[in-house]
């Protein structure tokens, strides 16, 4: 006799850690080739800061998944929301932020553009990029979207992926400017 597929299941730790490792590998490949200038120290600072940024992901992912403990979401769809935040949303937000930053500087001048762009444009592009995955899941996988809590879980996982990738750049900057002590404080 098989159980109801919607019955609560234990946390899919193995799926999450395998998926997280895959996301990190994909991120490394893309970041090394496209997005990041490697710091003066080469790959080691990048690996160190990436490890720091992603080290807390399993803890926060478990907290998010625990919110919906009575009606679990499929592991693959939860991982897809995380991956969307880590890869798709960061790429979209990076491109949009770059274009809007140039537009703000052209319209307002370099000084005012640099002052007004971060609080006005960056949140709009970043939050929109992360939120799109919730709309996508609600539209395409409607049978997996039962209530508001599902949207919170998927949105939080997308935000967690985005934050982990964004933290790599913050940690790199801290490491370059102040060494390991600054990285530790930033972490």
Describe the SSE topology.
Blueprint: H1 13-35, H2 43-55, H3 57-67, H4 75-108, H5 110-140, H6 148-186
Helix pairs in contact: 1-3, 1-4, 2-6, 3-6, 4-5, 4-6, 5-6
Describe the protein in words:
This protein starts with 12 loop residues before the first helix and ends with a helix. Residues 7-11 have low confidence and may be disordered. The protein is built from six helices and no strands. It has helices at 13-35, 43-55, 57-67, 75-108, 110-140, 148-186. With 187 residues, the protein is mostly helical. The chain has one domain.
The total beta strand count reads 0
Q: Could you say how many structural domains there are in total?
A: 1
Global structural class: mainly alpha
Termini separation comes to 48 Å
Structural Rg = 18 Å
Number of helical runs? Answer: 6
Helix and strand run: HHHHHH
Percent of residues in β-strands:
under 5%
Largest sheet: none
Q: Overall mean pLDDT score?
A: 80
Helix content estimate: over 70%
Shape: flat
Oligomer: single chain
Contiguous low-pLDDT stretches (5 residues minimum) are 7-11
């Amino acid at each position: 006799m098989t159980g109801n597929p919607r019955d609560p299941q234990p946390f899919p730790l193995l799926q999450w850690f395998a998926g997280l490792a895959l996301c990190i590998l994909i991120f490394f490949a893309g970041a090394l080739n496209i997005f990041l200038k490697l710091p003066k120290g080469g790959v080691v600072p990048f690996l160190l800061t990436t490890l720091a940024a992603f080290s807390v992901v399993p803890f926060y992912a478990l907290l998010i998944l625990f919110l919906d403990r009575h009606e679990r979401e499929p592991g693959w769809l939860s991982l897809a929301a995380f991956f969307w935040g880590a890869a798709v949303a960061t790429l979209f937000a990076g491109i949009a932020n770059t274009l809007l930053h140039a537009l703000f500087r052209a319209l307002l001048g370099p000084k005012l553009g640099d002052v007004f762009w971060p609080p006005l444009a960056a949140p709009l592009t970043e939050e929109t990029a992360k939120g799109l995955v919730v709309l996508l899941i609600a539209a395409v996988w409607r049978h997996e979207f039962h209530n508001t809590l599902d949207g919170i879980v998927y949105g939080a996982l997308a935000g967690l992926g985005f934050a982990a990738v964004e933290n790599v750049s913050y940690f790199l900057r801290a490491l370059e400017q102040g060494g390991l002590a600054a990285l530790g404080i930033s972490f």
